[in-house]
Amino acid sequence: MYSLNVPVPPAVSKLARGLAAETFGSSVRDRHTLVVKRLGEKSPERLAPEVRDVVAGTAPFQLRIDGIGSFAEPTTGRSPVVYLRVDSPALEALHRRLCDRFGAIDGLEGDEYVPHVTIARGGNADRLIGRDVTTEWTVDWLVLWTGRYDEPVERISLPA
After folding, report:
1. What is the pLDDT of residue 27?
2. What are the structural domains, with CATH classification, of the chain?
């Protein structure tokens, strides 16, 4: 599965790893990402031009981490999923444009899309919920990401 992701700055990854250490028994991530839209299984050579077409004209935009949330019953995998909440009207607008082009995955995208950076799965989410964490950064590039190898395959600079 390929996706379009926002690269997560080292400071946000460090924050997520530190918080994950507090969730005993959790599954901690090596790499943190922020999914904008899952894109399917087409090859990157075919996906990249389509994504660039949708992203064209998108200016760099702000993201704000504004707290910690959890999915008590995630669509897949261990629960709960504890995450850093992301607030960004520009990110959500981009997600909607990508859904118009590629379709939305039921239960995960479209109206159900919750922008977030996963901290960990499992463990005691209650220890983190309500914690005051805030940080902001400017997104000036995106990555076409492969879930199979858990790595970027192409960079898309903004404005695209």
Report:
1. 58
2. 2-157 (3.90.1140.10)
